[in-house]
């Protein structure tokens, strides 16, 4: 048995050993941190060095083993194309976003868009006395905008690009969103006023009956109430049975006006998820029509729209309710490619008299869509079409300032809150609080867009609602946000005006392409019928040509051989002409290292590929393993500096972009010709790899004039840091177009020698390949 001294000594020894171990661990961590950058650089160099050899040869052999199986081709596309975001510092909820499930191959039906305003529009023209009361309360513009049918597919496509983190739509050309300006111009709702909030008093059904009798003129039955909500069918039935008489007293006219406003609130502006009820908490706010008109109904409606879009982005959601007509009007005004053609366009004068004794103002700008449509050039109600249009969007296909030339002719009620259109403030509607960030979309106001600062959309408030919160005073509950809205004029953001579109290499666009979700549709997920999206394929082709172009520049600068330089210049001309012809020549001015890289970087969304039935006699090969990737360069994110002061946006925009392009004529004759009729035996096959006939059945080769030479004469750069002709040959050969399927265009060339095959194929794989060749 050990003595006390021995026990103390034993403990001290243990402590000393532990301290020694900790010191060694600290030194190891310091050494690791000191050499981490060097090791990462070495790994990046090794990856770039063997990238073409590994992907080209391995993919080619997989293609041969599967006899042109499209699942392998689709996996190659997935490996080469990253939908974003590369930098997840902004869109940090991508894992729980609807677009991730779409990319993985989940086939979503369009969201069910809930609304319950059909009965209101069937009433026809309202009595002019009722309309004048609606003007006082601020809802006249919504009534004049009329009934517009919702396109569920269009709403769903926009939801897929809505981001809860920023309250904006992330489009390929930048961020855009519905702002207070759109609510005011399109619907004429009051913007500048007190927030729509207050004390949500819990009342009994009998108390609600008494209030309805006092403010609506009738006592609904008990069965029409449901937890502070009233069935809209009850209002419809009562006022259909007792229409307004010409000699009705003023208080009866007020009954009708309040009832119709409730129908608009519950069916269109602030709809309930039940799809057939209206929240009675709005009824006390309509007691005095003049006081109701001083409330900011526009900000409340916009808050409801933001909340509905944020909830709809969840993958497990199948419906959405909110002021979705406003969203559809916003999209029609700004995206001409999806805009239906109006059959009877009309110009509105400043005042349109409805009756001689009751002159009423003209409708808001949104009323111009209350007409019939001609759909000869537009395909509506097809989700995959809308998704592909947004994926392929170019700078000149989005109208940043659709109201610039008409804003002076709008009725006064559409411009009443113009001073705060650009306020960075919370939007409130009782339990709903959502942030308004116009500083992220300043181009919508004709102003220069800097890289925006970090924003907080108060996601924790999305779980706050009226359930279980009886007798809540929302003014006190959301006091800090109410105070921010009260200070809305001091929170207005302004920037200098712009005189032209933003360039592709603008610092904002360089930053934006790294933090955004560029693509929604995955080109690898193809269906057996229907429209096949091409947005991802076009992006992959453009990225590949951009990389080839700039690698040629590097090779020309580093090469001493004149013949090689001439060939590289020819390849450069091919890329230049192809990008110009596809209206993607903006990429020529920016190196791909600063643009969107084409390899999978960071935490990528795993793809889900729909496999097709294999050809008879063939077998499905194993998909290639995911390629490792490393980040390239630091993120360019300078701090944004905005001037916070009251301002009035200019109504004069830069010249409107043209939506028609003249036919493109290249400066020199293109070297790439899409020639399906060219015989496959014209392709050089002196690289010791036989062309598989079954693979050729699915691929139409792109003939490249300068590449039709002996590959052995080109300098091999497998062990050299500078790019070479063989590597560029592999890149160019990877661009093949099949008229049957656009996703077959990226087939690796056979310009790699058998030495590389030995490096990437195991003995068993080579044995299997020999047996397959023998059978063929």
Q: In words, what does this structure look like?
A:
The chain is mainly alpha-helical and 776 residues long. The chain folds into three domains: 48-75 and 602-656 and 669-775, no CATH class; 89-114 and 148-196 and 296-342 and 361-521, no CATH class; 116-146 and 198-294, no CATH class. The protein is built from 24 helices and 19 strands. The strands form nine sheets. Strands 2-3-4 form a three-stranded antiparallel sheet. Strands 1-8 form a two-stranded parallel ribbon. A two-stranded antiparallel ribbon has the order 5-15. The protein is globular and about 95 Å long. The relative contact order is 0.15. Mean pLDDT is 75; it is low at 1-7, 52-73, 348-356, 594-641, 648-652, 654-723 and 732-763.
Short synopsis of the structure:
Helix 7 (152-159) packs across helix 15 (383-391), helix 10 runs antiparallel to helix 11 (250-269) and helix 19 (535-558) runs antiparallel to helix 20.
Break the fold down into its secondary structure elements and pairings.
Elements: H1 4-65, H2 70-80, H3 98-103, E1 112-114, H4 118-121, H5 128-137, H6 140-145, H7 152-159, E2 162-163, E3 168-171, E4 174-176, H8 180-187, E5 199-200, H9 205-215, E6 229-231, H10 232-241, H11 250-269, E7 277-279, H12 289-292, H13 297-312, E8 319-321, H14 324-334, E9 341-342, E10 351-355, E11 358-361, E12 373-374, H15 383-391, E13 425-429, E14 432-436, E15 472-473, H16 474-477, H17 479-486, E16 493-494, H18 507-515, H19 535-558, H20 562-581, E17 643-644, E18 672-674, H21 693-696, E19 702-704, H22 725-733, H23 754-760, H24 763-775
Parallel strand pairs: 1-8
Antiparallel strand pairs: 2-3, 3-4, 5-15, 6-7, 9-12, 10-11, 13-14, 16-17, 18-19
């Amino acid at each position: 048995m050990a003595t006390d001294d021995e026990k103390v000594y034993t403990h001290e020894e243990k402590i000393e050993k532990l301290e020694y171990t900790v010191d060694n661990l600290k030194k190891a961590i310091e050494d690791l941190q000191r050499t981490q950058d060097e090791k990462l650089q070495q790994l990046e160099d090794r990856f770039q060095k063997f990238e073409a050899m590994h992907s080209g040869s391995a993919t080619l052999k997989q293609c041969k083993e599967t006899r042109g199986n499209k699942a392998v081709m689709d996996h190659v596309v997935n490996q080469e194309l990253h939908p974003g975001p590369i930098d997840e510092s902004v869109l940090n909820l991508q894992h729980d976003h609807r677009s991730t499930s779409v990319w993985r191959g989940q086939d979503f039906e369009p969201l069910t868009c809930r609304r319950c305003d059909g009965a209101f529009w069937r009433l026809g023209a309202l009595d002019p006395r009722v309309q004048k009361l609606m003007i006082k309360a601020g809802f006249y513009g919504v009534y004049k905008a009329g009934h517009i049918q919702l396109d569920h597919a269009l709403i769903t496509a926009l939801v897929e690009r809505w981001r809860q983190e920023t309250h904006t739509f992330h489009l390929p050309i930048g961020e855009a969103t519905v702002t207070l300006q759109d609510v005011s111009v399109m619907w004429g709702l009051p913007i500048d006023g007190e927030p729509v909030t207050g004390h949500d008093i819990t009342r009994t059904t009998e108390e609600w009956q008494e209030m309805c009798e006092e403010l609506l003129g009738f006592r609904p039955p008990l069965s029409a109430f449901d937890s502070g909500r009233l069935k809209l069918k009850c209002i419809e039935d009562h006022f259909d049975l007792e229409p307004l008489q010409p000699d009705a007293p003023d208080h009866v006219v007020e009954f009708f006006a309040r009832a119709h406003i409730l129908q608009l609130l519950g069916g269109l502006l602030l709809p309930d998820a039940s799809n057939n009820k209206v929240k009675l908490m709005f009824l006390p706010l309509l007691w005095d029509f003049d006081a109701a008109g001083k409330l900011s109904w526009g900000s409340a409606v916009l808050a409801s729209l933001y909340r509905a879009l944020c909830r709809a982005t969840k993958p497990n959601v199948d419906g959405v309710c909110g002021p979705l007509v406003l969203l559809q009007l916003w999209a029609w005004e700004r995206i001409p490619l999806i805009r239906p053609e109006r059959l009877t366009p009309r110009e509105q004068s400043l005042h349109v008299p409805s009756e001689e004794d009751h002159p009423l103002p003209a409708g808001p700008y949104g009323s111009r869509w209350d007409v019939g449509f001609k759909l000869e050039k537009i395909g509506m109600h097809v989700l995959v079409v809308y998704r592909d249009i947004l994926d392929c969007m170019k700078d000149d296909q989005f109208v940043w300032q659709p109201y610039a030339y008409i804003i002076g002719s709008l009725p006064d009620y559409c411009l009443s809150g113009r001073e705060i259109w650009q306020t960075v403030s919370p939007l409130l509607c009782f339990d709903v609080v959502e942030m308004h960030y116009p500083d992220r979309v300043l181009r919508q106001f004709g102003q220069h867009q800097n890289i925006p600062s970090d924003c907080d959309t108060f996601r924790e408030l999305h779980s706050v609602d009226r359930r279980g919160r009886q007798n809540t005073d929302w003014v006190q509950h959301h006091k800090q946000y109410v105070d921010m809205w009260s200070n809305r004029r001091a929170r207005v953001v302004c920037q200098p005006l712009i005189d032209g579109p933003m360039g592709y290499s603008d610092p904002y666009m360089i930053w934006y392409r790294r933090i955004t979700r560029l693509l929604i549709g995955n080109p690898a997920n193809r269906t057996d019928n229907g429209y096949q999206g091409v947005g991802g394929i076009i992006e992959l082709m453009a990225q590949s040509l951009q990389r080839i172009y700039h690698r040629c520049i590097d090779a020309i600068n580093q090469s001493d051989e004149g013949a090689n330089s001439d060939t590289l210049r020819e390849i450069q001309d091919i890329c230049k002409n192809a990008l110009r012809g596809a209206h993607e020549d903006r990429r020529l001015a920016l190196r791909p290292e600063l643009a969107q890289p084409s390899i999978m970087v960071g935490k990528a969304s795993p793809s889900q590929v729909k496999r097709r039935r294999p050809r008879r006699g063939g077998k499905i090969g194993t998909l290639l393993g995911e390629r490792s990737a490393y980040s390239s360069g630091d993120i360019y994110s300078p701090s944004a500096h905005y001037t916070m002061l009251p301002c009035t946006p200019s109504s004069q925009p830069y010249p409107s972009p043209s939506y028609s392009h003249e036919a493109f004529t290249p400066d020199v004759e293109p070297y790439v010709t899409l020639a399906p009729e060219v015989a496959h035996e014209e392709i050089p096959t002196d690289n010791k790899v036989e062309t598989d006939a079954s693979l050729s059945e699915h691929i139409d080769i792109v003939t490249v004039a300068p590449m039709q030479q002996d590959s052995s004469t080109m300098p091999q750069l497998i062990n050299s840091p500078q790019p070479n002709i063989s590597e560029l040959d592999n890149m160019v050969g990877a661009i093949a177009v099949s008229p049957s399927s656009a996703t077959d265009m990226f087939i690796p060339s056979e310009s790699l020698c058998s030495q590389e095959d030995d490096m990437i194929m195991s003995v068993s794989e080579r044995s299997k390949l020999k047996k397959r060749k023998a059978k063929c």
